[in-house]
């Protein structure tokens, strides 16, 4: 999936993946896609809830070799 920006939050525990995601999302225009890489297993529920509460859309999430990847569309 194409993304406009990628952030690496691997190795960070909650709440850092959310903090990094919010900072990066603030730099994007509405409709652009942010790709987030994280290793914290709680990131899936955290990012899903955060996206919903912020009016953003979780387009897709996958896991490859212990790395969780998320694609979030800015609302």
TrEMBL record:
Domain UPF0033: start-end pairs = 7-31
Please give the CDD domains that the UniProt record associates with this protein: SirA_YedF_YeeD
Which SUPFAM superfamilies has this protein been placed in?
A: SirA-like
Q: Which PROSITE patterns match?
A: UPF0033
Q: Which Gene3D superfamilies match?
A: TusA-like domain (3.30.110.40)
What the entry lists under Pfam families is as follows:
TusA
Q: Name the domain of life this protein comes from.
A: Bacteria
PANTHER family the record matches: SULFUR CARRIER PROTEIN YEDF-RELATED
Q: Which family does it belong to?
A: Belongs to the sulfur carrier protein TusA family.
The protein, known as: UPF0033 domain-containing protein
Q: Which organism is it from?
A: Bacillus haynesii
